[in-house]
Specification:
Blueprint (H helix, E strand, L loop, with lengths): L9 H14 L3 H14 L5 H9 L4 H13 L10
Length: 81
Amino acid sequence: MERLNITLDDERAEKLARLAERTHVQPGTIARSLLIDAIDGTDADVASIVELLDGIPGAYERAELGRAQARAGDTIALDDL
């Protein structure tokens, strides 16, 4: 099993919180189930994955920033988190 941390914008975080409240489960449980369903329902070819990633506002810029920060040594060791 692998852990993944995801940051939601305020609108989606609120939707997730309302859904979790209505279903009487923790938001993380609902989020995990929704993510699993999305992954299972996705065509795993490279073109569809690129299209999905291209649809995330600012994703490319954030990835490039992360690469630049890593190259500059501006990172935190996993053990320090």
